[in-house]
Design a protein that fits this description.
7-stranded parallel β-sheet; alpha/beta; 11 strands; 1-deoxy-D-xylulose 5-phosphate reductoisomerase; about 45% helix; oxidoreductase; single chain; manganese ion binding; 4-stranded mixed β-sheet; binds NADPH dihydro-nicotinamide-adenine-dinucleotide phosphate; Rna Polymerase Sigma Factor, Chain: A; binds manganese (II) ion; 3 domains; binds 1-deoxy-D-xylulose-5-phosphate; about 400 residues
Length: about 400
């Protein structure tokens, strides 16, 4: 049991899949953690329930009207949580002086600035929002270093690799005897489907992940294998690796969460039941270990572990992401923004599944003169790519 004072935690995106799992872990350890802030975009009823259960100091919603609704509801319940609205309020609760740890679990580019605010303020940053590193990896890692922040990857694969590497792992894989990172992928719900069937899938089919229960955007990314592409970029930044040093291994059971292959031939893997409370608990308690509410893996029940190579012909998003990382500059931010627009259109039923990769490829093929050497330039590239993607949608639109 830790003798440290209780830590204040801000949970950005608390009403989402990662946010709910984070609060589950926190609630198991009231002696270690207390909630400073909870944030949502529009889910005001869910945020109210979370405020009543976890008693945060601050709650944040996007609109003034929703914030006013929540303020009145909390007052009516006799609770003194302060309620704020808007994007700057998200950054504020991430950088607040009393906050020890920030779970960055807002989905998409919207999560970049609050996660960066936490890094710049030197917090323990529990990074679920992979889009932040995809968009601005160099700047984000510089901010972590400059501010002395502790960056702990929550994405299951990256958390696994973190657990498989030596404690100090900056300066290139070779420096600490690692030859390759083996990034596992479930292959998504359409792993065994033919290209013609894949072209006709619905949003609900795409969101039915075989092993994980997640938000809809990341579920679609898993189905296109864009998630693995974003994760490849994320791994490059987190572990100082080149795209060529990362091998994607399709492993349909999602029991091995990723591996590090060492120069002496050793391959170290992290295994566990597919439950995000494990990496979340790891991030919250590191370097200690705490109960996450997750059962020990039953290897007799798992019985077998399969591996295969990814099929980039049926799932071109993985190749697009790798190429964007190889291109560098603003390309990963452009890839991410075009993907967000295409996935949104697919989920809205106006774009076919196979057109997601086409829209992303078409936007990446357009000339872009800007770079990604300041956060303003990253945001400009993001905006530019969104406009281009919206124009491309017209060429593929279903209605
Ligand atoms: N789910 C998982 O198992 C994993 C997720 N991740 C990553 O973690 C992040 C979160 O994923 P997940 O929990 O699945 O996503 P969800 O869609 O379930 O939740 C997203 C959260 O972000 C909030 N949000 C959405 N848009 C905005 C916005 N514009 N401004 C402020 N808040 C916003 C949502 O609020 P509201 O409820 O009001 O919409 C919600 O609280 C993603 O980056 C994902 O890639 C990584 C590994 C695993
Ligand atoms: C739980 C998690 O980390 C997800 O990113 C997961 O990896 C998605 O699964 P696949 O992308 O491997 O299908
Ligand atoms: Mn992952």
């Amino acid at each position: 049991m830790s003798a440290l004072p209780r830590q204040w935690v801000t949970v950005l995106g608390s009403t989402g899949s990662i946010g709910v799992s984070t609060l589950d872990v926190i609630a198991r350890h009231p002696e270690r953690y207390r909630v400073y802030a909870l944030t949502a975009h529009t889910s005001k009823e869910a945020l109210l329930d979370q405020c009543l259960a976890h008693h945060p100091q601050v709650a944040v919603l996007d609109s003034d009207a929703d914030a006013e609704w929540l303020r009145r509801a909390l007052e009516g319940a006799g609770q003194s949580t302060a309620v704020r609205a808007g994007h700057e309020a998200l950054c504020q609760v991430a950088r607040e002086a009393c906050v020890d740890a920030v779970m960055a679990a807002i989905v998409g580019a919207a999560g970049l600035m609050p996660a960066l605010a936490a890094a710049e303020a030197g917090k323990r940053v529990l990074l679920a929002n992979k889009e932040a590193l995809v968009m601005s990896g160099a700047l984000f890692m510089q901010a972590v270093e400059r501010a002395g922040a502790t960056l702990l990857p929550i994405d299951s694969e990256h958390n696994a690799i973190y657990q498989c590497l030596p404690a100090v792992h900056r300066g290139g894989l070779e420096r600490y005897g690692v030859r390759q990172l083996l990034l596992t992928a479930s292959g998504g719900p359409f792993r065994t489907w033919g290209a013609e069937e894949i072209a006709k899938v619905t949003p609900d089919q795409a969101c039915a992940h075989p092993n994980w229960s997640m938000g809809r955007k990341i579920s679609v990314d898993s189905a296109t294998l864009m998630n693995k592409g974003l994760e490849l970029i994320e791994a490059c930044w987190l572990f100082d690796a080149t795209p060529e040093q990362i091998q994607v291994v399709v492993h349909p059971q999602s029991v091995i969460h990723s591996m590090a292959a060492y120069t002496d031939g050793s391959v170290i893997a992290q295994l566990g039941n597919p439950d995000m409370r494990t990496p979340i608990a790891y991030g919250l308690a590191w370097p200690e270990r705490i109960d996450a509410g997750v059962e020990t893996l039953d290897l007799f029940q798992v019985a077998r572990l399969d591996f295969e190579a990814p099929d980039e012909a049926r799932f071109p998003c993985l190749r697009l992401a790798r190429e964007a990382m190889q291109t560098g500059g603003a390309a990963p931010a452009i890839l991410n923004a075009a993907n967000e627009i295409a996935v949104e259109a697919f989920l809205a039923g106006t774009l076919g599944f196979e057109a997601i990769a086409k829209v992303v490829a078409q936007v990446l093929a357009l000339p872009y003169a800007g770079n990604a050497d300041t956060i303003e330039n990253v945001l400009a590239a993001d905006q530019w790519a969104r406009q281009q993607a919206v124009e491309q949608l017209g060429r593929h639109s279903r209605s």
